[in-house]
Write a structure and sequence with these properties.
This protein has 730 residues and is of the alpha/beta class. The strands form 4 sheets. An 8-stranded mixed beta sheet has the order 11-10-9-12-13-14-15-16, with helices on both faces. A 6-stranded mixed beta sheet has the order 1-2-3-4-6-8, sandwiched between helices. The protein has a two-stranded parallel sheet with strand order 5-7. It folds into 3 domains: 4-289, 2-enoyl-CoA Hydratase, Chain A, domain 1 (Alpha-Beta Complex); 324-505, NAD(P)-binding Rossmann-like Domain (Rossmann fold, 3-Layer(aba) Sandwich); 509-722, N-(1-d-carboxylethyl)-l-norvaline Dehydrogenase, domain 2 (Orthogonal Bundle), CATH 1.10.1040.50. The protein contains 30 helices and 18 strands. Bound molecules: nicotinamide-adenine-dinucleotide. Nicotinamide-adenine-dinucleotide is lined by residues 328-334, 351-353, 357, 408-411, 415, 418-419, 436-438, 459-460, 462.
Length: 730
């Protein structure tokens, strides 16, 4: 035994301690559950044992199933033999269900002593205990986060949670959105029995057993009543009647897990618990068999965690502790960067052309903190501490001693060159210089630097305090050491980094533009604007394409198009004048419709009302008599993003599949159910994807022609994520 141990005290109370070796968190996997089963096989039949306590020797209680181990859900076998895989998943799941059920039926009281996070299977094991006591600390999360990664609670969560707490909005959020509870909230909802302080935890657990606490679950007692009324009662019907339509409206049926959770609860609570657990196991199997769950586990959990832990950081360099940074430009981006940086305890020198502008940049942090104060999410002391770290100024000499500079002045090469020279005159030779440019190639900007090796792109997203991604861009001369240092900074400010090579629009802006661009192209083809917008949302994108084009600004899209035209012509290439080009020209150049910024774009933005599609659009782009199926439009939206991403991979702008998938989901909100653009191609299957892209190219134009990389992969039937090992780089 190495992961679990147990002791039996003089009162006959057994304490099982979870403490997985070589892991910072306790997780449920074949090994730990196997050991747990062996221990129960000894303790349950032992007459001297009066009751059993589960505790953890780590900070968290148990964090859930081991999602990093590829075989834990039998993902691998699904490709090979679907029937066998389903059988394996179902049987494996039922084995765990029965193990937990054996705790409930053992005749001995089981108590969970929850000292830290109890999540997913880690909370379900607690639910199978007869008594649950937790430390009263609001930082502790008690929850069922499975739905967040496309799974469903599969160890009784969908059955025991509603049987304890009924079905209400909070419980729906707990199970379907994975919103965790604090121990206090879990107590008031009826999910745990007691909260106490850390010193008293085991004492309280032992007391339950010593006092002769029941060894029967409420649902196994005669006369048990489902809290709040079953679905067929008038009260229950009120909750259930709208639930499916609400779910559909929110998810457009893109997320099998949420529908499965809803069904498992609805069907499961109407039958005895053993049948309910079997129902849950069937839905669990169905969801795991669906490629969406694999996509989501791989991208949103395994690969995200890997990137956050620095998987892309060159290993050979010592950790770089950034203590002071300089930010050049205190506008929208500079102000946000100052806030997130100071929040992680780093000193910030915030520079602008005049003192008032610099002060205004600091004001941004004050406003955020005041809002937090009013919601009691921070204290006056913490607010002051953070604000004291930010010095607004015009004086470049204050940059002396800065470990890193982030330049966020206007998007203008000359201004950027000027501030680069001024800052470099003050900082050490070893300091990093990062530019937050969104469009200007890093290699070109680095030509203005005395130390191009130290020059790098650090591309934040707006609003900086809310957007989790940072796209790091390597210029031609950027050194690996500079990358390592930059990644240490990004990790310190708790953002997820991806690393890409220099190119126009880098990765995220370049591919993001294909989604909005496709919406505009559809409009130019004569597809009804409302159909385009609905199809975009039904694809699972956070915003409809035309509304998003307005939000980003149509004049910007026009400027980028003009620049591309100029560049192509300078290279002696022909710029294809498409209907999309003509439409943008009409909207921006002739009609002065710049988007949301001047309240005139594809939409009208009345001062006191909701935005609505500009009625004149149908005159500008004559609507076709025959309108396409929504499924065709959805396909176009996803294919165009996936094709451009593959091109970035071929061109070496992307070098790691994880960067591609995570960057897409976090950067521009590409439908998370796809797992990102490369996971999407894998899900379709490379051969089918290439064939379908060729079809789309025939119908809609050259932009759908698959790149050589895809054709080569199709010839060899390869996938981006090497089959079998979720999270592996192909
Ligand atoms: P902004 O116009 O809000 O802010 C720019 C700031 O730079 C202004 O406060 C201006 O006074 C200051 N500035 C101009 N010249 C200066 C100089 N010589 N010395 C010091 N300060 C100077 O612009 P923004 O939206 O914050 O964008 C800044 C940079 O970030 C741009 O390169 C932009 O492309 C990039 N970016 C913007 C976004 C976005 O969503 N806005 C996202 C990513 C990257």
């Amino acid at each position: 035994m190495s992961d679990l141990s147990y002791e039996i005290d003089s009162d006959g109370i057994a304490v099982i301690t979870w403490d997985l070796e070589d892991r910072s968190m306790n997780v449920l996997n074949f090994k730990s559950l196997g050991e747990y089963k062996d221990i129960l096989n000894k303790l349950i039949p032992d007459e001297n044992v009066k009751g059993i306590i589960l505790r953890s020797a780590k900070d968290a209680f148990i964090a859930g199933a081991d999602l990093t181990s590829a075989d834990v859900f039998g993902f691998d076998q699904i490709q090979e033999d679907k029937v066998k895989a389903a059988e394996k998943i179902y049987n494996g799941n039922m084995e765990m269900q029965l193990l937990f059920r054996s705790m409930e039926n053992s005749g001995k009281p089981f108590v969970a002593a929850i000292n830290g996070h109890a999540l997913g299977g880690g909370f379900e094991i607690c639910l199978a205990c007869h008594y649950r006591v937790a430390i009263d600390n609001d930082k502790i999360q008690i929850g069922q986060p499975e739905a967040k990664v496309g799974l469903i609670p599969g160890a009784g969560g969908t059955q025991r949670v509603p049987r304890l707490a009924g079905v209400n909005q909070d419980i729906m959020g707990f199970l379907m959105a994975g919103t965790p509870f604090t121990p206090k909230k879990a107590l008031s909802s009826g999910l745990i029995h007691e909260v106490t302080d850390a010193e008293n935890l085991i004492v309280a657990a032992k007391k339950y057993i010593a006092d002769g606490g029941k060894a029967v679950q409420p649902w196994d007692e005669k006369g048990y009543k489902f809290p709040g009324g079953l679905p067929y009662t008038p009260k229950g019907a009120m909750i259930w009647a709208a639930s499916s339509s609400t779910l559909r409206k929110m998810s457009y049926n893109n997320y099998p897990a949420q529908s499965a959770i809803l069904s498992a609860i609805y069907e499961g609570v109407q039958v005895p618990i053993d049948a309910g657990l079997r129902i849950e196991a069937r839905y669990f199997t169905k969801v795991v068999m669906d490629p969406v769950s694999r996509n989501m586990v791989r991208s949103l959990f395994v690969n995200m965690q890997a990137l956050n832990k620095g998987a892309r950081r060159p290993k050979e360099f010592e950790k770089y502790d950034v203590k002071k940074i300089g930010i050049l430009g205190a506008g929208l981006m500079g102000a946000g960067i100052a806030y997130v940086t100071a929040k992680s305890g780093i000193e910030v020198i915030l520079i602008d052309t005049d003192q008032a502008a610099a002060e205004k940049g600091k004001e941004y942090s004050t406003k955020i903190l005041d809002k937090q104060l009013s919601k009691k999410r921070t204290t006056e002391e913490k607010k002051e501490k953070l604000l004291n770290l930010i010095t607004p100024t015009t004086d470049y000499s204050l940059l002396q001693g800065a470990d890193l500079i982030v330049e966020a002045v206007f998007e203008n090469r000359d201004i950027k060159a000027d501030v680069t020279a001024k800052a470099e005159a003050q900082i050490a030779e070893t300091a990093v210089f990062g530019s937050n440019t969104s469009t200007l190639p890093i290699t070109g900007l680095a030509e203005n630097s005395k130390r191009p090796n130290n020059f790098i792109g650090i591309h934040y997203f707006s609003p900086v305090e809310r957007m989790p991604l940072v796209e790091i861009i390597m210029g031609k001369e950027t050194s690996q050491e500079t990358l390592a240092k930059t990644m240490d900074y990004v990790q310190k400010i708790k953002k997820t980094p991806i690393v890409v090579n220099d190119s126009r629009g880098f990765y995220t802006s370049r591919v993001f533009g294909t989604y909005t661009g496709e919406g505009v192209a559809m409009l130019a083809e004569g597809i009804k604007p409302a159909l385009i917008e609905n199809a975009g949302k039904m694809t699972g994108m956070p915003m409809a394409p035309l509304a998003l084009s307005d939000a980003v600004a149509l004049d910007l899209a026009w400027k980028v198009t003009m620049q591309t035209k100029k560049d192509l012509e300078a290279e002696g290439k022909e710029f294809p004048v498409t209907p999309m080009y003509t439409l943008l020209e009409e909207m921006v150049d002739k009609q002065g419709r710049y988007g949301k910024k001047n309240n005139k774009g594809f939409y009208e933005y009345p001062e006191n009302g909701k935005k609505y599609l500009w009625p004149e659009l149908s005159n500008l782009c004559k609507e076709s008599d025959e309108q396409p199926e929504v499924s065709e439009l959805k396909k176009r939206f996803l294919y165009i993003q996936a094709l451009e991403t593959a091109k970035c991979y071929e061109e070496n702008v992307l070098t790691d599949v994880r960067d591609a998938d995570i960057g897409a989901i976090l950067g521009w909100g590409m439908a998370p159910w796809t797992g990102g653009p490369l996971s999407y191609i894998d899900m379709i299957g490379i051969k089918d994807f290439v064939t379908e892209a060729d079809n789309l190219a025939q119908k809609y134009g050259e932009r759908f022609i698959p790149c050589k990389l895809l054709r080569d992969m199709a010839a060899k039937n390869e996938s981006f994520h090497s089959s079998g090992k979720s999270g592996q780089v192909a």
